[in-house]
Design goal:
Length: 88
């Protein structure tokens, strides 16, 4: 009778271990999906960062052009004359 109880105990423990292993497998699969999704998101973020960097460069270039033109306009106002040459 002791042998039967020992065998029953071993079978119960084995069944419990198998259930735990199945649950761990599910967790690993879910974790791998999350990691894969994070990788996709990182790739999308890297592309967006490159696009943003290019747009900022274009904006900086346009700003320099605007500054140059504005300075020219300010200089022309300082010279005065409203398009006429001033005589000294």
């Amino acid at each position: 009778m002791d042998v039967e109880r020992t065998m029953e105990f071993i079978l119960q423990r084995q069944a419990k271990a198998e259930n735990e292993m199945a649950a761990m497998r599910k967790l690993v699969v879910a974790g791998m999906r999350i990691i894969a999704k994070q990788g996709e998101n990182l790739n999308k973020l890297a592309v967006a960062q490159k696009e943003l960097t290019a747009e900022v460069r274009e904006l900086a270039k346009a700003q320099k052009t605007t500054e140059t033109k504005l300075q020219g306009f300010i200089d022309s106002l300082r010279r005065g004359g409203n398009g006429r040459h001033s005589r000294n």
